[in-house]
Design goal:
eight-stranded mixed beta sheet; 8 strands
Length: about 350
């Protein structure tokens, strides 16, 4: 089957390689022409522009977009004049589901079909395949089924029996009408935030246990009935991650990646701990508010990313200031430069 791919970043290029390996013909475009030309080794044809890519496709055209959400509308505006009835545009990035609904209606007025495909797999998708969550017209989904099937992991990837039925067992699913694919992917990413935060907090506690800076020993009088963390607890995190991978309830692909990262750098040297959020976590929390559904773990994980970027610095200083003002408590580690305990406020 023929496909045009616009956007050849970390995922787009590997998707083209996987599709080409499965025998599909790909015409590709990226602002970096060198990236597009590099895919000639798998038989892909580089187009000099997005418009030229459309012209090189046979009708009904299938154009897959893998670009940042903010760039989708300008690209569609530029492509629209070249698209004709029954063409299919697929947004495989992380767009907002509300934008999908609008775009679908706008393109439908021209007879062009629009699919939103939440795509999960990251850098490992070339090898493992991509989990695909699809929203849009059923006939359009059926038309591109060979593409979806080639990108997906397949039935045996998750330990399913070869005879398992349904596309979900093969790693892709038509989730519903326009916007449904990206909505499901949005919730997927919100859950991902929570899982990542849980692993990070657990390993942080293991890392801190046995440390001379352990709060249980620095400030033990605050909890006199509790046993302090033993000073001889010095855990090798890379080995703990490895043992958890084998048969534990919390084994997962994320844990596999943790084990790999710790094996390469047990102290995670080279990482500053500045964690970005690409939008889906925020949208998930907003959807939860709209639906009246409590998602405290997902919300806390999102706010934890804000904290990692220093957004809580002023709040932390405010907490320290209040504690000093009402109780004269010096900051631990503040040294002799800390102010003296304040005098009691005058009676009124």
């Amino acid at each position: 089957m023929q496909l045009g791919m616009i956007g050849l970043g970390r995922m787009g290029s590997n998707m083209v390689r996987r599709l080409s390996k499965a025998g599909h013909q790909c015409v590709v475009y990226d602002r970096d022409s060198g990236v597009a030309r590099a895919l000639a080794d798998v038989g892909a044809t580089a187009a000099p522009s997005a418009g030229e890519l459309v012209q090189r496709l046979s009708s009904p055209r299938v154009v897959w977009i893998m670009i940042p959400a903010a760039a989708v509308d300008p690209l569609l505006d530029s492509l629209a004049p070249a698209l004709t009835a029954d063409d299919i545009v697929i947004d495989g990035g992380n767009s907002y589901y509300g934008d999908d609904r609008r775009r679908s209606a706008q393109l439908a007025a021209r007879g062009v079909r629009y699919l939103d495909v939440g795509t999960s797999g990251g850098l490992w998708g070339l090898e493992r395949g991509y989990c695909l969550m699809v929203g849009g017209d059923s006939a359009a989904v059926a038309h591109v089924d060979p593409i979806l099937a080639a990108l997906a992991p397949g039935a045996t990837a998750a330990g399913k029996e070869p005879g398992a039925t349904g596309t979900a067992a093969r790693g892709y699913l038509h989730c519903g009408p326009s916007g449904a694919g990206h909505f499901v992917k949005m919730i997927h990413n919100g859950i991902e935030y929570g899982l990542m935060a849980a692993y990070a907090e657990g390993f942080s506690l293991l890392h801190r246990a046995g440390s001379d800076a352990s709060p249980a020993r620095v400030d033990a009088e605050t909890a006199p009935t509790r046993a302090p963390i033993p000073a001889d607890f010095h855990f090798k995190l890379e080995q703990i991650a490895e043992v958890w991978r084998h048969g534990s309830v919390i084994s997962s692909w994320l844990l596999d990646l943790i084990a790999q990262a710790l094996a390469e750098a047990p102290g995670l040297d080279g990482y500053a701990g500045h964690v970005a959020d690409s939008g889906e976590g925020r949208w998930t929390v907003e959807a939860a508010i709209d639906a009246g559904v409590p998602v405290p773990v997902l919300a806390t994980a999102l706010f934890g990313r804000f904290t990692s970027r220093g957004e809580a610095d002023f709040a932390d200083r405010m907490l320290s200031a209040m504690r000093y003002e009402f109780g004269g408590h010096r900051e631990i580690g503040s040294g002799s430069g800390a102010p003296a305990a304040p005098a009691p406020p005058p009676r009124r």
